[in-house]
TrEMBL record, chains A, D:
Keywords: Cell membrane, Membrane, Transmembrane, Transmembrane helix. GO terms for molecular function: transmembrane transporter activity. It comes from the Bacteria. GO terms for cellular component: plasma membrane. InterPro entries: ABC_transp_permease (IPR001851). It is found in: Cell membrane. PANTHER family: ABC TRANSPORTER PERMEASE PROTEIN YPHD-RELATED-RELATED, RIBOSE IMPORT PERMEASE PROTEIN RBSC. It is a multi-pass membrane protein. The keyword tRNA-binding does not apply. This is Ribose ABC transporter permease. Pfam families: BPD_transp_2. It comes from Pleomorphomonas carboxyditropha. The chain crosses the membrane at residues 20-39, 51-70, 102-120, 126-147, 159-183, 219-241, 253-285, 297-316.
TrEMBL record, chain C:
The lineage of its organism: Bacteria, Pseudomonadati, Pseudomonadota, Alphaproteobacteria, Hyphomicrobiales. This is D-xylose ABC transporter ATP-binding protein. Its main location: membrane. GO terms for cellular component: plasma membrane. PROSITE patterns: ABC_TRANSPORTER_1 (PS00211), ABC_TRANSPORTER_2 (PS50893).
Length: 323, 271, 504, 323
């Protein structure tokens, strides 16, 4: 019987996808239909590229966040890490570094901040919520020190090109999202490391008993989250030609919302990168579509909240019905 | 088609008055106008402008989140063939079609001179600031420059108070640490009004004088009725918004417009 | 004898373990030989699991040395233990509910190439392991969907799946199992023995111990008492060593006569059904009667009890005292003075982080409420202390977090919690799971006492002797249906026949 | 043995307090000593009143948050509820309502918003994190509708007096904090309702089996949180003579930090109001002390983060040592 089941699942990967993501896919499609009907410019290739570029920063941060949430932890510091990454790059260029050294330095800075979060959480046993609330403030303070709060311009043409140029017809920024999506998806769903993350998030004690080095998994995942946030920061600073000290403020909430919309459970142990990507798309399309319809700002806030509630509710309901 | 406006925030009376004036003028001249709010996030401002480009507006009016970083936003619009007008905050490192705004540095200097006059050229003053906003930094610089010319006036404290609640706490704590403060300069109306509350709750109404910046209705009323509020540097967002829309209409019509349209701030010291 | 000492594979010397001020182990000794089953026997809280966790690298001994395969042995973590060829099936289930059986069994040992998991191979491997062990489990099912007994089987499969074990530890592997699965486990142990693997076995089921063991070591209060070979010892002697006194009987006799058949039932159930889980279940129970429920794993007993208690909806009719009763939630059930000792104490029974006192009072909070909802703390404490001493729960104080008690003592805490509600109908789902013989006897006495006072008792158990020894009448379930209702005097063979469905 | 232990504990309630709160009490005392040494004006009655008034808004919100966290849930919408409460009051006064009707209306508004959070969480089974992220946006949008984002003045003299006047020598605002602390403390630690909250937070399933109406507990607690936030909003608007549309932004993080500093576990089931009060004091004293020492803003962010980390670490360590 188990064999039979397996074959059917393998034969219809779309059916499986639909079963797992039906709830939010419906939300996504309905949103697109509504916006298309109301503004014909919405459903254009140009606008789709637009949306993808706009969600890039949140989507990539949300990939990192998915790992962390999967573990039953949270990382509220990513908004600040995004800002630090941009500022680190700006300062490195000011100090005369070239493109590659700056890139490496920025990624290392992200990894180091993630390492700090991970060590404080795993080794000292502090709750990640409070650790990352604290580091959120610390990193936000750090980013402001070199310029005393003022933004710093970035002039390096290669850096700027990341956010501005295209490659084989697609903006580079979209390529980066695609590559990072595939990377995270494969790492999570196909490798032993991903499996360890699921086990640790699902039942920490069981994971310890099974011989998983839970601390190491945790630290690694906070580093992944830091690196993803740093990449977000690179894209953001490249799109803005500058490092803003208030960059990324409260992006952690959008990233969490994207992951949770996509079915990642805050209790840990459940979640996928595909879901997170769909979640990020919903958020991005909502922002873009409401702009296209000239919905006033405060109504946007309200509608966005309602759509998130509706999407999560549909998702929860569709999953419950299946049981 | 029409005008797309991307404004820094919608939670400050200055910007509300600016937006209202723009809308009124646009209605009067019957040009379509759409307003997006960047909520102090440059990335959101960029996204808003990108969406304007897709929608195909003729001209964009920006109140930049930040003068340097807005370059990316402006270049994006200009590449798409859309002309850009900035209001309130100038853009640096990139040419725009026109800039309409208050000279914040000059306003700061005026505030400093008013303070010196009120204190009789000597005493201790404190500043409530907001260091990540360029226009505020300019005001503070102007204020310090003016104070610097009066040897007997000393700046004893400077703290950040972005929202009214934060400014209140900052003012209270500065007064606590330096009970001999005689003057407080708030970077905006909120900061000044909060400082006035702090002065009152510390019972120092007869000692401390507060000066603000922006000069919106609430602050002007306070200057009229509250002896602690001795004055406020007044900006004219209504004028700014009207002129921005008029300029945009001229740009659409292909007329030449002046590259800079400074609006001199006033000093309001009561009826 | 000297030849035998040469194949000593594990040697424990002077091992002590302190949890703060609590000494779980004091100067323990143990010698385990290859190819033999060595049973550890001791009361709840004697320190057996603690010793095993030290061997598995989960805890670290406070003092003492261990020698394994002739070399000093001090594992830092479970990987190191596994690397040395030691594997363990934990008493408290250590599975990940949201993952499949296969993923759990092969956790950290997934078939992979450069870190990439081969999912087909994973499932195939796990299915092989399960088939080789002869266990009836679907490896692609999520563990969270399984019953307690099935989870225990998964735990066993996980523990036994390492390639070449030298020493296998089984900590109360059969506490949720029926005889059928127990037989499978025994044949697995037999095969391990034949391969020269040493087995440490922990159980509270005396018949099992006498059948399986080669050597038996008794521990008491964290101390080594004695080691005997199975041939040279009787159950009674072992029990005497273990509890420090003699015990003459296992099942106390009923107090007073059984209720007459003519008496009206307090609870009668008619055609209780839920799609795919059970169907047409009907029975009745009278005041003072003990009605046993027997069946194989997954026969649906626990689900029926859940339905009776209002946890999950089911169709059919329930009458209490002859009146139709709607029980839509545990609140309704408790309102009708029904109590339910669930089979999964960790998830459904206890708040592990809270004190013994809070756990004992949690189902009867109303009893400790004064005006305006204020708690009567002193009354609560008194009641908790009474229950602790009545059920001889071994705990430092009623303020101790219940999660740090030994498994059997946690079970008693669950019982205490429900006794405090003074139920008219008491549902017991595997009430003696993991409880030692001495304490079992105490629990049986309490059940008898309650019955004598007029409480109707539904006793679900997978231990056939227990249901036979305690019940006035016996309901047997098979695949979600009632297959028989038998009187107290039924033979084990007859019951098993109904349970496996081979009668027609 | 168990008796002995108990008698000793009863004889020395301070010893028990010290045992439970030793870690953070140390942090509190050390902070006070440092600030006193560096600025003699710190240790004055006037300044202490100052600090208490400044933390009032956060402390009261944190009392509500403690209930929610105790349940293993979270309420990110309280910052927005604070703003809505102030705006509701301002609009009611504008509409000509008197003091009492306005007060009642404002509290009802808080309760209603809490009810919405509670029903969405308990009845629809949505994760509270995502529910309250959504309602955070919705409420923030709502607050801006009446004035289109502008602040609204409050002229009612009684309302203003709450934040400005004293009663029997103590500012009214401090009386309110004291009364609410006692109320929440007693409700949590002395009543069956409090016990039900602990049990539900400790193990939801076991609570259901024990006949606790967990949904009702949950909804009630979200309403408590909403009402506490509304009271915070009343105090804030009274101190500022006005309702600001951005009032309370990100106060939820300070409230959570106060609760967690005070030993409330984000996993649920563990926490006390005393701890939360101490946590709020630490945060308030830190802000006040650093202002008094003229520490620049960005350094304040960094120091605040470091102190939170240190305090939580001390606390975790002291608790672990006791085991
Ligand atoms: N993590 C812990 N913290 C504190 N005390 C503990 C801990 N684990 C076990 N103990 C205590 O150590 C003693 C021995 O417990 P252990 O679990 O080893 O008993 P056991 O012999 O396995 O009992 P059972 O037959 O009930 O499983 C008990 O008194 C228990 O309360
Ligand atoms: N063969 C099976 N495969 C998977 N799940 C099963 C199987 N049989 C039963 N189940 C599930 O197990 C549960 C039924 O077992 P239940 O716990 O009621 O049985 P039980 O008679 O109490 O046996 P147990 O001793 O296992 O507790 C249900 O959740 C049912 O869906
Ligand atoms: Mg044990
Ligand atoms: Mg069962």
């Amino acid at each position: 019987m188990s064999d039979e089941k397996h074959v059917t699942a393998a034969q219809k990967p779309y059916a499986k996808l639909l079963r797992q993501y039906g709830g939010i896919l419906v939300s996504l499609v309905v949103l697109c239909i509504i916006f298309s009907v109301m503004n014909p410019r919405f459903m254009t290739v140009a606008n789709f590229m637009n949306v993808l570029q706009q969600i890039a920063v949140i989507a990539i941060a949300a990939f990192g966040m998915t790992w962390v949430i999967l573990l039953g932890e949270i990382d509220l510091s990513i908004g600040s890490i995004i800002a630090v990454a941009g500022m680190a790059a700006a300062q490195a260029f000011l100090a005369g570094f070239g493109f590659m050294p700056t890139l490496v330095l920025t990624l290392l800075a992200g990894a180091a901040m993630g390492l700090a979060n991970g060590v404080l959480t795993a080794k000292l046993g502090l709750p990640s919520f409070i650790v990352t609330v604290a580091t959120m403030g610390i990193f936000r303070g750090l980013v402001s020190l070199p310029t005393n709060g003022a933004p710093a311009m970035i002039e390096n043409p290669t850096w700027i090109a990341i956010g501005a140029e295209s490659f084989v017809g697609l903006p580079i920024i979209i390529w980066i999202v695609v590559v990072l999506f595939v990377f995270n998806h494969v790492l999570l769903s196909k490798t032993t490391f991903g499996r360890r993350a699921y086990l640790t998030g699902g039942n920490r004690e069981a994971a310890v008993y099974s011989g998983i080095k839970v601390d190491r998994v945790k630290i690694t995942i906070f580093m992944i989250s830091g690196i993803m946030a740093a990449i977000s920061g690179i894209l953001l600073s490249s799109r803005l030609y500058s490092a803003q000290t208030n960059a990324g403020t409260s992006y952690e909430l959008d990233a969490i919302a994207a992951a949770v919309l996509g079915g990642t459970s805050l209790a840990g142990g459940v979640g996928t990168m595909i879901g997170t990507l769909i979640g990020a798309l919903i958020i991005g399309i909502m922002n873009n579509g409401m702009n296209m319809l000239s919905v006033p700002y405060f109504y946007q806030l309200i509608v966005k909240g309602l759509v998130i509630l509706l999407a999560v509710w549909l998702d929860v309901r569709s999953k419950r019905a299946k049981r | 088609d029409g005008i797309g406006a991307s404004l820094l925030t919608q939670q400050h009376p200055f910007y509300i008055e600016l937006a209202d004036a723009m809308k009124a003028e646009a209605t009067a001249k019957s040009v379509p106008l759409e307003v997006a709010i960047a909520n102090q996030d440059l990335n959101k401002q960029l996204a808003d402008v990108e969406d304007f480009i897709v929608k195909g507006v003729d001209v964009i009016v920006l109140s930049p989140v930040d003068s340097k970083g807005v370059k990316a936003v402006i270049e994006k619009a200009q590449k798409a063939g859309i002309k850009v007008i900035t209001v309130d905050v100038p853009a640096s490192g990139v040419e725009v079609t026109s800039y309409i705004g208050t000279d914040n540095y000059a306003g700061g200097v005026k505030a400093g001179e008013l303070m010196a006059k009120e204190l009789g050229d000597k005493g201790k003053v404190a500043i409530i600031d907001y260091p990540t906003v360029q226009s505020v930094v300019n005001r503070i610089d102007g204020f310090k420059k003016a104070i610097g010319e009066h040897k007997d006036i000393e700046i004893v404290a400077q703290q950040t108070g972005i929202t009214r609640a934060e400014a209140l706490a900052a003012a209270q704590n500065m007064l606590q640490a330096n009970p001999d403060i005689q003057g407080i300069f708030g970077f905006g109306d909120d900061a000044a009004l909060a400082a006035a509350v702090a002065v009152k709750s510390a019972g120092l109404e007869n000692q401390v004088k507060v000066i603000g910046f922006d000069g919106m209705e609430e602050a002007r009323n306070a200057v009229d009725t509250n002896p602690v509020m001795v004055g406020v540097i007044q900006q004219f967002p209504g004028e700014m918004g009207k002129r921005a829309v008029d300029t945009a209409i001229d740009v659409i019509a292909g007329k030449d417009v002046p590259a800079e349209q400074p609006i001199e701030p006033g000093v309001y010291t009561g009826k | 004898m000297s030849a035998a000492t040469s194949d000593v594979i594990l040697k424990i010397n002077n091992v002590s373990k302190l949890f703060g001020p609590v000494a779980a182990l004091k100067n323990m000794h143990l010698e385990v030989r290859a190819g033999r089953v060595h049973t550890l026997l001791g009361e709840n809280g004697a320190g057996k699991s603690t010793l095993m966790k030290i061997l598995a690298g989960v805890y670290h001994a406070t003092t003492g040395e261990v020698e394994f395969c002739g070399a000093p042995y001090k594992p830092e973590n479970p990987q190191q233990a596994a690397a040395r060829g030691l594997t363990i099936v934990f008493q408290e289930l250590s599975l990940c509910n949201n993952m499949t059986v296969a993923e759990n069994i092969l956790a950290t040992r997934e078939p992979s190439v450069y870190g990439f998991i081969n999912d087909q191979a994973l499932e195939r491997r796990a299915a092989e392991i399960v088939r080789d062990l002869g266990l009836p489990i679907d490896v692609s099912e999520k563990v969270g969907h399984l019953s307690m007994a099935q989870r225990q089987l998964v735990e066993i499969a996980k523990g036994l799946s390492i390639p070449d074990p030298r020493l296998v530890i089984l900590d109360e592997p059969t506490s949720s199992l029926t005889d059928a699965e127990t037989e499978i486990l025994f044949s697995i142990i037999g095969r391990l023995k034949a391969k020269g693997v040493a087995v440490i076995y922990i159980s509270h089921r005396m018949e099992e111990i006498m059948r399986l063991s080669d050597d038996i070591t008794v521990v008491r209060d964290g101390e080594y008492i004695a080691t005997r070979q199975r041939e040279n010892v009787t159950i009674d002697e072992l029990i005497a060593m273990m509890v420090g006194r003699k015990m003459d009987e296992i099942y106390p006799p009923r107090l007073g006569a059984a209720p007459a058949d003519s008496e009206a039932p307090i609870l009668s159930v008619e055609g209780l059904s839920r799609d795919g889980e059970f169907e047409g279940v009907s029975f009745e129970v009278r005041k003072g009667e003990i009605l046993g429920f027997f069946g194989l794993i997954g026969s649906g007993r626990s689900e029926v009890m859940n339905a009776l208690f209002g946890m999950k909806a089911a169709s059919g009719s329930i009458r209490i005292d002859g009146e139709p009763a709607t029980i839509a939630s545990p609140v309704d059930a408790i309102g009708r003075r029904i109590a339910f000792v669930t089979e999964n104490r960790k998830e459904e029974g206890l708040v592990l982080a809270h004190s013994v006192e809070w756990n004992i009072s949690m189902a009867a909070l109303g009893r400790f409420a004064a005006a305006l909802g204020f708690m009567r703390n002193r009354a609560e404490r008194r009641a908790a202390r009474e229950e602790v001493s009545r059920l001889t729960i071994k705990t430092a104080s009623v303020d101790t977090p219940v999660g740090s008690l030994s498994g059997g003592n946690q079970q008693k805490a669950v019982l205490a919690k429900w006794l405090l509600t003074q139920p008219r109908i008491l549902i017991l789902d595997e009430p003696t799971r993991g409880v030692d013989v001495g304490a079992k006897f105490e629990i049986y006495k309490i059940i008898r006492q309650l019955a004598a006072e007029g409480t109707a008792i539904l006793l679900v158990s997978s231990e056939l002797p227990e249901v036979l020894g305690m019940s006035d009448r016996l309901v047997v379930m098979h695949e979600g249906r009632l297959s028989a209702t038998l009187s107290g005097g039924a033979t084990p063979e007859a019951v098993m026949a109904h349970a496996t469905g081979i009668t027609s």
